[in-house]
Automatic annotation (TrEMBL):
GO terms for cellular component: mitochondrion. Keywords: Mitochondrion, NADP. This is Inactive hydroxysteroid dehydrogenase-like protein 1. Pfam families: adh_short. InterPro entries: 17-beta-HSD3-like, NAD(P)-bd_dom_sf, SDR_fam. It comes from Ridgeia piscesae (Tubeworm). The keyword Cell membrane does not apply. Its main location: mitochondrion. It is found in: Mitochondrion. Belongs to the short-chain dehydrogenases/reductases (SDR) family. 17-beta-HSD 3 subfamily. Signal peptide: none annotated. PANTHER family: INACTIVE HYDROXYSTEROID DEHYDROGENASE-LIKE PROTEIN 1.
Length: 369
């Protein structure tokens, strides 16, 4: 009997011993997890302070000296590209405008020359035409370079989106080609064209414009977001290859910016803290150059990107589908309203068409993401 009691006590002590050590191990795991979280959070907070705070307090004043006297900006006759070109010109950088439409290019060139006293060169092209476009640009750039140009800074900004969010099979094949030619080929081939001289001189910067849609799959902007993943991965790998040779390769990842690209929606064309104008966005984004290789470029968008990163993928897919359904309804109603006022100028559109088919919860969601 006594032997049985002894063995029970022994067994109980053994079990308590094991549980104590498991508790110790769990406590250690908890401490390690908390330490990792704290380190990650403080690292992120420091990055935000550095990229969006210190960078704005101590902006690079002499961009021409640091990166070179000329900047090539693609898609620079409207939106973010035009605003970024203005910011560069304001810092005394000469601009090569590469965009659609001769008149728009010339008007932008004249405006930059008269307002900021910089030199410009216009190269009107349609990136949708593929290889011949790059041969043309190469020729124009080469001719000028032999004379006066040194190192360059390139903003690969040009980009197109769907007319409004829609299912893959509803997007015309022509638009899909355009997305590939403009969003992927232009960034790749422009970089291939200007990088050799930067490498040779050991200075320069390539800024590629991706989009928040590169961080998660975006249903109904399927191909657009996929092209932006390409831009993001292209920039990150390229930075690893050439970043150490005095060249800055930066990827900008903006969320919504009120430009012509967001015109399909009245919600997204309304500037707010989270949907800045192109000039506000460009002003913030330029200050991050040299401070971050991969950034949203604008601090409220960095807050948005945190929320997106913390959202489970299933929830993100569900919410973005709901949001894009709402945006499509809004865009289609806008189109109908516009057509009706063109057909009957001066007439009041019918009440059905006037009602905005986007609920207030969806509006808030659209404004945030
Ligand atoms: N707006 C946003 O919410 C947003 C968000 C994230 C990322 N982005 C990205 O930011 C970049 C700029 O967008 P944005 O909003 O400023 O667009 P935007 O206002 O529509 O301006 C696009 C510019 O690209 C030019 N362009 C368009 N197609 C072209 C082609 N086939 N060949 C040559 N030039 C062409 C346009 O020339 P024309 O003026 O002659 O038409 C215009 O100057 C894009 O890469 C876009 O994906 C935008």
């Amino acid at each position: 009997m006594a032997a049985a009691v002894d063995s029970f006590e022994f067994l109980a002590q053994e079990i308590i011993g094991v549980f104590t050590s498991i508790r110790d191990v769990l406590a250690l795991v908890g401490v390690a997890f908390a330490a990792k979280r704290t380190l990650t959070l403080s690292g992120t907070a420091w990055q935000v302070i550095r990229v969006h705070g210190l960078a704005r307090l101590f902006p690079e004043r002499n961009l021409a000296k640091r990166y070179g006297p000329w900047a090539v900006v693609t898609g620079s006759t409207h939106g973010i590209g035009k605003a970024y070109a203005q910011e560069l010109a304001n810092c005394g950088v000469n601009i090569i405008i590469i965009s659609l439409g001769q008149e728009d290019c010339e008007a932008t060139a004249k405006y930059l020359e008269q307002t900021f006293g910089v030199q410009t060169q216009s190269i009107p092209v349609d990136f949708n035409e593929g290889k011949p476009v790059f041969d043309k640009i190469q020729k124009e750039i080469e001719g000028k370079e032999i004379g006066i140009l040194g190192e360059r800074k390139t903003l690969n900004n040009v980009g197109v989106m769907y007319d409004y969010p829609d299912y893959f099979l509803n997007v015309p094949a022509e638009k899909l080609w355009q997305l590939v030619h403009v969003n992927i080929s232009a960034a790749t081939m422009m970089t291939h064209m200007v990088l050799p001289q930067m490498v040779k001189r050991g200075r320069g910067a390539v800024v590629n414009v991706s989009a928040g849609g590169c961080c998660m799959p975006v249903p109904q902007m399927t191909v657009y977001s996929a092209t932006k993943v390409y831009v993001d991965f292209f920039s990150r790998a390229l930075n690893y290859e050439y970043g150490g040779r005095g060249i800055t390769i930066q990827c900008l990842i903006p969320y919504y910016v009120a430009t012509r690209m967001t015109k399909f929606s009245s919600t997204l064309s309304n500037p707010s803290l989270f949907i800045p104008t192109a000039s506000t966005y460009a002003r913030h984004a330029l200050t991050t150059l040299g401070w971050s290789e991969r950034t949203t470029g604008y601090w409220p968008h960095t807050l948005q990107s945190w929320v997106v990163r913390m959202t489970p993928v299933w929830l993100w897919l569900w919410a973005s589908t709901r949001l894009n359904n709402a945006l499509r309804r809004q865009a289609i109603h806008r189109q109908v309203r516009r057509k009706s006022s063109v057909r009957n100028p001066g007439s009041r559109p019918s009440s059905i068409i006037l009602s905005d088919p986007i609920s207030s919860a969806e509006v808030k969601l659209a404004g945030l993401f």
